[in-house]
Amino acid sequence: MKLYPFFILIALLSFSACESLVTEVGPESLPDTESKLVVQSFISPQAARITVVVTESVPLFGESTGALNIIRNATVRISDGSQEATMRYDSAGSSYSIDRTRFNIVAGKTYQLAVSDGKRSVQATCTVPGKTASIKSYVIDTVYSENAFNPDTTITVKMTWDDIPGEANFYRLRSFLELEYTIVESSGPENYKERRVRNRFNVDWDRSVGRNDYRSDVNLDGTVFSSPTGRFTLPTPTSYQDEDGKVHIVYPKSKVISLTFEVDNTDETYFKYHRSLQLRNTDNPFSEPALIYSNVTGGLGCFAAYNSGFVTYKPAQ
Q1: Nearest to 265 by CA among 174, 175, 170
Q2: Tell me: the pLDDT tens digits for 10-58?
Q3: Where does the chain have alpha helices with state H?
Q4: For the chain, which residues make up each domain, given as ranges?
Q5: Assigned CATH for 32-60+67-129+267-308
Q6: What's the pTM value of the predicted model, to 2 decimals?
Q7: Distances from the Cα of 47 to the Cαs of 70, 106, 157, 259, in angstroms?
Q8: Helix (H, G, I), strand (E, B) or coil at 49
């Protein structure tokens, strides 16, 4: 018995069903998706300046150039209910800022931020956490490579801190390395020189074991927290060829000036915003799309606060 006509009929019905799932939607049925003001600012009693970045979003059906649409003519005001300050645009930082000597951020206070570009206005509010976390201990180690050309390649750090008891807390971990090392400069093939420089670097936290540099004390109130491992790769040797054709190898001779361990006690808004960014930027191809958290009324973005506790290690020189 021949079944070919039966299979052809089933295939035709399948194609017909697939086509019926596609529905054309006219422009009049789509939601209004105009560009919105986007505000980003994180305030802290320890920060030297208050900085606010103001951009605008790309409409749903607009064309994105990949660059930030920075708003340079906005009016940006910050207030604590009794005093108010207007920030000026800083072209060097592409942001609005004010020094803390002109407007001080105080732990436990609530602040309001208002931004307008003449056509659109947005507002946001945040409260600075009143307490700082206490760092209990830290460990610094060096991972040595078997490569004799570059024997000490990585510095690792870990730390523990006491949770602030009796309240809900959200934390962000940071660590900074101030390093002095040798670099090679050149203004031409015949002109090379070595120079000592000093720079500050962020330590990268290892998130591969399910831990994170953003933590909350849900069901862990009053306990001791421990960080994941933080890593920093030291500068590697460089080489150059002089005008006589001789190859020179320059070793960085890295010297640790200081290592700072920091635990930021953040408000919930700060925590939710940054965790949503991490979930959005995950490399997992099976993860679901994540919305970016926002607390800005009338627009998008985040206005949040944190209070930093830190310890600085300086090796004997």
Answers
A1: 170
A2: 454 454 444 444 445 455 544 456 899 999 999 999 999 999 999 999 7
A3: 4-20, 268-280
A4: 32-60+67-129+267-308, 134-265
A5: 2.60.40
A6: 0.81
A7: 23, 11, 24, 18
A8: strand
